[in-house]
Write a structure and sequence with these properties.
Pfam families: FERM_M, FERM_N. The chain is of the alpha+beta class. Helices cover 35% and strands 14% of the residues.
């Protein structure tokens, strides 16, 4: 009869990405163990996303009291005691650690897209306050990105209400987003 206890070096982790998809990292699939350095885990995530401009990004985790920490690339996973005490399974959150001073200087489309997803998430969760007029403009760009240019045959009244952009989203904001979306090409 075998032992049902977890092997101490075994590691099973879900990384929640900015597009709301999950990347599973395990000892069996990627060879990641508790003795693996954080930089190796980051490299797996960067390769999965095809990210080249990596200096802006990192992985966060929460301890049992919901305090947030950044994964230190120089430390092993076992050295992140607050992480190890939460699992298994473990959860990491991919995100922007440093914003670019001038986003126009970002070279890669995928980097700009990850920045867009982070800002969208931060506005939606209320971490980044946003005046209504700016929220309407950003929402219209997000709708255009998702649905393309406005088409009266496809986009009937109220189509924006299927999407969330800000906490406590109001109908007035949705109408403003629709008006602006009609002007974008």
């Amino acid at each position: 009869m075998g032992c049902f206890c977890a092997v101490p070096e075994e590691f099973y982790c879900e990384v929640l990405l900015l597009d709301e998809s999950k990347l599973t990292l395990t000892t069996q699939q990627q060879g990641i163990k508790k003795s693996t350095k954080g930089s190796i885990v980051l490299d797996h995530v960067f390769r999965h996303i095809n990210l080249v401009e990596i200096d802006y990004f990192g992985l966060r985790y929460c301890d049992r009291s919901h305090q947030t920490y950044w994964l230190d690339p120089a430390k092993t996973l076992a050295e992140h005691k607050e992480l190890i005490n939460t699992g298994p399974p473990y959860t990491l959150y991919f995100g922007i650690k440093f914003y670019a001073e001038d986003p126009c200087k970002l070279k890669e489309e995928i980097t700009r897209y990850q920045f867009f997803l982070q800002v969208k998430q931060d506005v939606l969760q209320g971490r980044l306050p946003c005046p209504v007029n700016i929220a309407a403009q950003l929402g219209a760009y997000a709708i255009q990105s998702e649905l393309g240019d406005y088409d009266p045959y496809k986009h009937t009244a109220g189509y924006v209400s299927e999407y969330r952009f800000v906490p406590d989203q109001k109908e007035e904001l949705e109408e403003a987003i629709e008006r602006i979306h009609k002007t974008l090409m």
